[in-house]
Hints:
Radius of gyration: 16 Å
Number of strands: 0
Shape: flat
Strand content: under 5%
Amino acid sequence: MKIDEMLDEMRDVNLNYLMLAQSMIQHDKATAVFRLGISQDVAELIEALTPAQILKLAASGMMVSRFRFDDGMVLNMLTNYTKDRTMAQSHAAILMAGQAVAAFA
Length: 105
């Protein structure tokens, strides 16, 4: 994959993430903050972005989202647990809720 193709793919991911995040925040801010793993301040910034700002941020050449599963146990619960899928997802949500929210500035 060429660098231009990667930047195009990254822009698409960023654009989809930002549009989804903004929609989630506008619908239910408290739930969005938890599900996105962002601070209240970042949620307010995302909510206030104009379409032009979203497009500019999406094309920044950097990923605006991050992979949240730093804990191998959480990732394993979500991908490999087969006994009771609903309980595994609930346990993973509880573990993730206990993690500190990363603040991006």
